[in-house]
């Protein structure tokens, strides 16, 4: 039997050098006894073979750093056994199903949970009369995590002085340095803080007695911590009275609200206001598309997106429908297609400020796939329903030329299917004295896969916009 | 009017805030106070500092600035027609409470909501003043979550985003028509527009913030749906969630089982849905966000989730033809759909099976719930045979459940 002596319960450096010697000497795991002896009178010199070189995966050292903080007595032996096996089974470290690895992982998990609970359940108390703001806390961690967690409190409370006392070790911060000392006694910590009364008030009030679930609470806040949590003293009483409180709420007769309140509620109830007469001002259109229920597209859309631009305007652009970005912003042509549109318009020599820009359909039609909203083409019924608003905009804007961007726009403006290929490049006569120009939708230009075809289509698009600008007398 | 002391105000205004399900403090940009100024830190993952006897975590000081409110939403304890006790904090009182609690390590930060007083803008301005004072006067680096008032002006919402880590707007009711009956002053379009603007603002400011490496704008938004106050079925609720995630990139949709409130409005049901329904909705939501399920696979519109089994087991029972799957060869997507196998267990299975053929014991060690998985998997030492298609399989998988006490 070999005895390996460590300086402290969390002496990882000592464990490493002992394990290194033992493994180099070929000492089998079951032939080692690990002990902690604080007073080391007999510091054995490392044996020469200890220098023998071998490497372990970084993952093993990370695991060891955690496992050694566990309170289980067999942690040193377990780590040495894994180290020993690693020589013959180098892939052991990557096998989460191995029994030793699973046990080590469970220990590491318990340690990391204990560290997390320490971050959560330390309760500082103000030391009255100190020159700098000074706090102290008594805490009993489930595993030996005090030194490991201290840097967290340094990062959080750098500008305060504080001390955390535990049975294993004490850590103190003075604004500049972190000091570690021997474990302490609860009596060394302050016993109260004026804020605790407020904290208990908060704790009791935020609890909803109609949802009592003490099992869930104990799972997350185990009883071992309650002793040092000022709010925990309230728990038995809160649990005991919860059922009666909830029952009383349900049993209490409801009181009818006052007439004043009911009248106000009625006044606020929004009735759909469209439908009385066709809108004649852009304010009516803007308000109208927001509450429009002529088809179902409003349901999943954020808002109705009316057209924008000068009224009257010589030139009007009609797109298909708002896209994802337009739907969020409430403005037409601000997304990727809008950028293509702006660029082409500038190349054609037309300023967007001179034109009215709108869509054939005012609400975003889409399908949710995962976390994306995928554009869907509006059907004929939806386009027809929305002509109510497009026609109103045409009457208000009174354009000389209407440019239809894509087939849906053409359907909305002309009222019947109008193929782009057969009609682009020429001026169409529309019934309301305006001239019509049909061309591609800018998002079509984004989707053309072949570069040459894309360049050609884009050039045609710019040409169509230029023609429209000329017809409208803007160029 | 009698002057209330701070403790009484805290009691009233935290009691009024307890129906909001969210208390999360995760997802903030990492920051600390190592440069010696101010107080506080966030490390990405939130910390729950206590748990109430209702099992819910307490991470933030969750309070209302005031519970006076000009609205009359039936489900809300603070509606104008309710006879609840009223109180109002001053900006300074909230700031001091937050700092005092934070320095004693009771909380991760502040979750501030409010009843609407005077106007939406006036209320929002007061809330922004609290956050601004914490950040600018006290260099507070903890977490701040602000509830937005949907009808407040976009400029105020943007200003709130400058000081908060997360903002939220509660939709509360899953169905638009019930919003109209139960919350006549709320307008679903107002809410959606405010969420849409916030998504654009968050995306717009995310890139410069990342580059600057410091907190410049809120990182996420969330919302809450109340379950069981109206007629909405689970399928409708999850459809609404899918839309919200897709349209506004919400980080979370919270589900809150409608809870009886004192002095309830006569427009509300007196019974409450079992908390289990809320739990099932969270499970289904989780499947949609992390396991690649689409809403129609989980539950149909107009239908409720099966309360007796978790939604993943429910799906597997309805799709037995896809099982059993071989643990040794199935791809990740398939493994994620096996009941009893969580995301972590799946990752470990993928690592472990490169080294050896896995047994049921191995599955247990990687953290799978073997009892639930057994009927759906083939391992080195196990094949379910006729068990997968057995009539009584569902009964075997249903855990005896403590039913609601009320």
Automatic annotation (TrEMBL), chain A:
SMART domains according to UniProt: UDG (SM00986), UreE_C (SM00987)
Short name of any one Pfam family annotated for the protein: UDG
Keyword list, A-Z: 4Fe-4S, DNA damage, DNA repair, Hydrolase, Iron, Iron-sulfur, Metal-binding
InterPro entries attached to this UniProt entry: DNA_repair_put (IPR023875), DUF4130 (IPR025404), UDG_Type-4/5 (IPR051536), Ura-DNA_glyco_family4 (IPR005273), Uracil-DNA_glycosylase-like (IPR005122), Uracil-DNA_glycosylase-like_sf (IPR036895)
Gene3D superfamilies: Uracil-DNA glycosylase-like domain
Annotated SUPFAM superfamilies: Uracil-DNA glycosylase-like
GO biological process: DNA repair
Residue ranges constituting the Uracil-DNA glycosylase-like domain according to the UniProt record: 306-466
GO molecular function: 4 iron, 4 sulfur cluster binding; deaminated base DNA N-glycosylase activity; metal ion binding
Tree of life domain: Bacteria
Listed transmembrane segments: none
Family statement: Belongs to the uracil-DNA glycosylase (UDG) superfamily. Type 4 (UDGa) family.
Name the record gives this protein: Type-4 uracil-DNA glycosylase
UniProt source species: Caulobacter segnis (strain ATCC 21756 / DSM 7131 / JCM 7823 / NBRC 15250 / LMG 17158 / TK0059)
From TrEMBL, chain B:
GO molecular function: catalytic activity; iron-sulfur cluster binding; metal ion binding
UniProt keyword Metal-binding, yes or no: yes
One Pfam family cited in the UniProt record for this chain: Radical_SAM
SMART domains: Elp3 (SM00729)
Classification via SUPFAM superfamilies: Radical SAM enzymes, RuvA domain 2-like
Start and end residues of each Elp3/MiaA/NifB-like radical SAM core domain: 59-284
Alphabetical keyword list: Iron, Iron-sulfur, Metal-binding, S-adenosyl-L-methionine
Keyword Iron on entry: yes
Cofactor(s) the record lists: [4Fe-4S] cluster
NCBIfam families recorded: rSAM_link_UDG
Entries under PANTHER family matching the protein: ENDONUCLEASE/EXONUCLEASE/PHOSPHATASE FAMILY DOMAIN-CONTAINING PROTEIN 1, TYPE II SECRETION SYSTEM PROTEIN K
Name this polypeptide is given: Radical SAM domain protein
């Amino acid at each position: 039997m070999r005895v390996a002596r460590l300086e402290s319960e969390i002496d990882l450096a000592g464990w490493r050098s002992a394990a290194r010697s033992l493994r180099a000497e070929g000492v089998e795991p079951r032939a080692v006894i690990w002990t902690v002896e604080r007073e080391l009178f007999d510091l054995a010199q490392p044996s020469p073979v200890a220098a023998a070189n071998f490497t372990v995966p970084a993952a093993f050292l990370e695991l060891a750093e955690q496992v050694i903080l566990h309170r289980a007595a067999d942690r040193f032996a377990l780590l040495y056994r894994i180290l020993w096996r690693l020589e013959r089974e180098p892939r052991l470290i990557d096998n989460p199903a191995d029994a030793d690895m699973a046990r080590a992982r469970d220990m590491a998990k318990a340690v990391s949970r204990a560290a997390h609970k320490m971050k959560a359940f330390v309760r500082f108390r103000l030391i009255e009369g100190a020159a700098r703001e000074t706090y102290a806390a008594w805490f009993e961690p489930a595993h030996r995590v005090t030194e490991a967690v201290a840097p967290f409190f340094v990062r959080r409370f750098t500008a305060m002085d504080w001390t955390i006392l535990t049975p294993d070790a004490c850590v103190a911060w003075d604004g500049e340095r972190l000091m570690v000392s021997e474990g302490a006694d609860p009596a060394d910590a302050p016993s109260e803080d004026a804020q605790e009364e407020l904290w208990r008030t908060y704790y009791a009030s935020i609890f909803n007695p109609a949802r009592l679930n003490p099992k869930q609470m104990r799972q997350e806040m185990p009883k071992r911590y309650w002793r040092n949590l000022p709010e925990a003293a309230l728990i038995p009483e809160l649990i005991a009275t919860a059922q009666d409180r909830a029952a009383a709420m349900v049993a209490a007769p409801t009181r009818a609200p006052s007439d004043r309140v009911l009248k106000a509620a009625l006044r606020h109830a929004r009735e759909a206001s469209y439908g009385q007469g066709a809108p004649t001002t852009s304010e009516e259109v803007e308000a109208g598309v927001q509450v429009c229920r002529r088809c179902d597209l409003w349901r999943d859309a954020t808002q109705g997106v009316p057209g924008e631009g000068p009224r009257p305007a010589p030139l009007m652009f009609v797109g298909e429908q708002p896209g994802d970005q337009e739907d969020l912003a409430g403005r037409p042509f601000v997304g990727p297609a809008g950028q293509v549109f702006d660029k082409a318009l500038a190349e054609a020599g037309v300023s967007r400020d001179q034109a009215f820009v709108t869509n054939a359909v005012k609400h975003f039609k889409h399908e949710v796939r995962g976390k994306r909203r995928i554009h869907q083409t509006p059907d004929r019924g939806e386009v027809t329903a929305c002509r109510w608003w497009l026609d109103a905009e045409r009457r208000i804007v009174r354009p000389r030329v209407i440019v239809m961007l894509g087939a849906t726009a053409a359907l909305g403006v002309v009222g019947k299917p109008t193929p782009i290929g057969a009609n682009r490049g020429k001026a169409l006569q529309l019934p309301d004295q305006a001239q019509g120009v049909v061309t591609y939708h800018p998002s079509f230009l984004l989707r053309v896969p072949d570069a040459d075809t894309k360049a050609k289509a884009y050039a045609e698009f710019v040409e169509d916009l230029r023609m429209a600008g000329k017809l409208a007398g803007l160029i | 009017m009698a002057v209330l002391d701070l403790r009484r105000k805290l009691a009233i205004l935290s009691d009024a805030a307890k129906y909001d399900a969210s208390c999360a403090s995760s997802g903030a940009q990492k920051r600390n106070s190592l440069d010696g100024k101010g107080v506080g830190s966030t490390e990405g993952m939130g910390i729950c500092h206590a748990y109430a006897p209702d099992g819910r975590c307490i991470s933030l000081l969750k309070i209302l600035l005031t519970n006076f409110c000009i609205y009359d939403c039936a489900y809300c304890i603070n509606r104008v027609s309710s006879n609840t006790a009223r109180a109002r904090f001053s900006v300074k009182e909230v700031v001091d409470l937050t700092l005092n609690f934070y320095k004693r390590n009771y909380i991760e930060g502040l979750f501030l909501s409010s009843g609407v007083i005077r106007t939406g803008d006036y209320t929002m301005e007061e809330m922004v003043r609290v956050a601004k004072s914490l950040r600018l006067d006290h260099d507070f680096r903890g977490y701040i979550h602000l509830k937005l008032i949907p009808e407040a002006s976009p400029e105020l919402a943007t200003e709130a985003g400058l000081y908060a880590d997360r903002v939220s707007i509660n939709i509360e009711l899953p169905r638009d028509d019930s919003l109209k009956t139960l919350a006549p002053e709320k307008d679903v379009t107002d809410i959606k527009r405010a969420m849409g603007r916030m998504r654009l603002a968050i995306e717009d400011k995310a890139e410069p913030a990342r580059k600057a490496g410091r907190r410049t704008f809120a990182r996420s938004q969330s919302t809450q749906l109340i379950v069981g106050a109206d007629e909405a079925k689970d399928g409708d609720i999850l459809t609404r969630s899918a839309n919200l995630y897709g349209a506004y990139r919400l980080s979370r949709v919270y589900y809150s089982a409608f809870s009886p409130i004192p002095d309830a409005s006569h427009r509300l049901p007196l019974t409450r849905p079992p908390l289990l329904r809320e739990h099932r909705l969270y499970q289904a939501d989780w499947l949609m966000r992390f396991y690649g399920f689409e809403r129609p696979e989980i539950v149909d519109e107009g239908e409720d989730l099966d309360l007796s089994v978790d939604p993943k087991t429910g799906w597997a029972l309805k799709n037995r033809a896809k099982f059993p799957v071989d643990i040794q060869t199935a791809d990740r997507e398939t493994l994620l759909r096996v009941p009893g196998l969580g995301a972590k267990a799946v990752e470990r299975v993928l690592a472990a099976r490169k080294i050896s053929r896995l047994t049921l014991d191995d599955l247990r060690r990687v953290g799978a719930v073997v009892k639930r998985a057994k009927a759906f998997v083939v391992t080195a030492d196990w094949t379910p045979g006729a068990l997968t298609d057995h009539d009584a399989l569902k009964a075997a998988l249903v855990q005896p459940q403590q039913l609601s006490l009320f």
